[in-house]
Amino acid sequence: MQNQASQQQLLGHPKGLFYLFFAELWERFSFYGMRALLILYMTQHLLYSDDISFGIYAAYGSLVYVTPLIGGFIADKFLGFKKSIQLGGILMALGHFILAIDTPIAFYAALALLIVGNGFFKPNISSFVGKLYEEGDDRRDSGFTIFYMGINIGGWLSPILCGWLGITYGWHYGFGLAGIGMLVGLWFFRSGIKNGVFGDKGGVTNTAIYNKKIVGLKSNILVIIGALLAVPLFALIVKFNEFEQYIVWLVSFGTLAVLVYIYLQSSKADKGRLLVLVYFTLLGCLFWAVFEQAGSSLTLFAKRNVNLKFLNASQSNSLNSAFIVLLALPFTWLWAYLSKINKNPNSPIKIGLGLVLVGVGFLIFGSSGNFMDANAKVSMLFLVFGVFIYTLGEMFFSPIGLSKVTELSPKKFVSFLMGLWFLSSFYGHFFAGKIAKLTSVVSGEESVFTQGVFASIVPKITGLDYNAVRSLDAAHVQLYSYVSVFTGIGLVTLSVGLFAVLISPFIKKLMFGIK
Ligand code: GLN
Question: Are 106 and 98 in contact (CB under 8 A)?
Fold first, then answer.
């Protein structure tokens, strides 16, 4: 606790939190601003077909979450947070600016730079937040909730600003603004270092390895060379994304091998905690696979089958971030208050409730089928309320997951295990693509969610029956596809979440004293 007291404090949290808050806010500003333009840029400017564009988008969206394993591992081994985060930020800023060059090679190189850069930036800035709190400090969950608010301020404003610039004045202005956002983020981070708010935290973790020379080159230079060599490799994977499934296998076996290695050298308590982290990550795969419908099938549902008011389909994506910004402070207070009266639920319960709420959110979308109008459109209230409920789920799940990774991980592997947590987003995006494809059955073939156990329950919730809709027009069949899939995944997520709450006492035991 002494170390804690010696850190400079602001608004009841370590001052460093606010520098990381603004650095991450601007990094996410660049990340989501560029992402909001990407699919439109490919289909309208590069004139790629929908299928090719979806393939590239999904490969990019998932691969940005695979590199954190490597970036986290390198930071743990010797590079430390400060240097890794700066390297990642520079690579990403380069990526955004290279997107402004109008050739296919520049396009793929830019995406690959973003993929590699994110690997150094994202896990390490998240682990750095955890490092600001000592073990057992009750403020950790609130700290991560504040940090999460920064993420979403960036994610909320940038699609509006970069989208407006990109579409009104030209794509490259939009991408350029994203690049500037990244530079601002880097500037915040460096000023935190300059002002000494991180103290001696986040420095090189192993000076012997750091100073070691291999073929006459210091290891930090080798990391930069390695990162640059990885760029053409990722560019090729994004371009030939039909082979991404092999990467999924490779990553799965590679990660399993490292996990076994960490497990074998861990103490009894660390072994239990590691198992809990793997359990949270597995739940995360389901969480993100459902959640990430937002940018794909849910946006198309909004466009085709929702009576939109005030917002267009693409803008409806910003509702989630806007709700997070509204909810973050109340949640921070809630966790602090519940801790004070000793009633803060343990993290296995919170994680379970997160899944339950995402499930309920999707059931709300699903139930909208009961209230369609003659054009097979439903009220926007379903969309807004469903997003609100699944955002509540995100508040229970995502910041708490980040916080627990930093508390449950053996000290030597925090960032690698943060990479493991982000791997759930990699798998999530991968499976989200497969789920989204189930909604594109306009001809009305049955999907997995309208057969077997789902056959009797799904139509009861959606109010739509295939035999009735197929005699109507394509819009009705399309609505039927959306609401059936949303209901099906809602039911699965809700059930898994309830099960997770039920077994939470057993999981808690494996955490050896951590809540
Ligand atoms: N929206 C959050 C962020 O951008 C969560 C991302 C994730 O873990 N998939 O950090």
Answer: yes
SS (H, E, C) 422-452: HHHHHHHHHHHHHHHHHCCCCCCCCCHHHCC
Nearest CA to ligand 1 atom 5: 398
Write the residue with the smallest CA distance to atom 3 of ligand 1. Answer: 151
For residue 103, the number of C-alpha atoms closer than 13 Å in the C-beta half-sphere is: 4
Query: Ligand 1: distance of its center to the CA of 402 in Å?
Result: 10
Domains of the chain: 13-509 (1.20.1250.20)
Write the CA distances from 62 to 292, 344, 392, integer angstroms. 11, 33, 24
Q: Residues with beta carbon inside 6 Å of ligand 1?
A: 28, 151, 288, 398, 422, 425
221 CA distance to ligand 1 middle (Å):
30
CA distance 96 to 110: 7
Nearest partner of 61 among 289, 226, 277, judged by Cα: 289
**pLDDT (tens digit per residue) in 343-401:** 889 999 999 999 999 999 999 999 998 998 888 899 999 999 999 999 999 999 999 99
Looking at residue 409, what DSSP letter applies?
S
Instruction: Give the helix ranges, DSSP H, for 463-514.
Output: 466-469, 474-502, 504-510
pTM of the model: 0.88
Place of tokens 């059955």: 441
Each residue's pLDDT tens digit, 318-339: 889 999 999 998 998 898 888 8
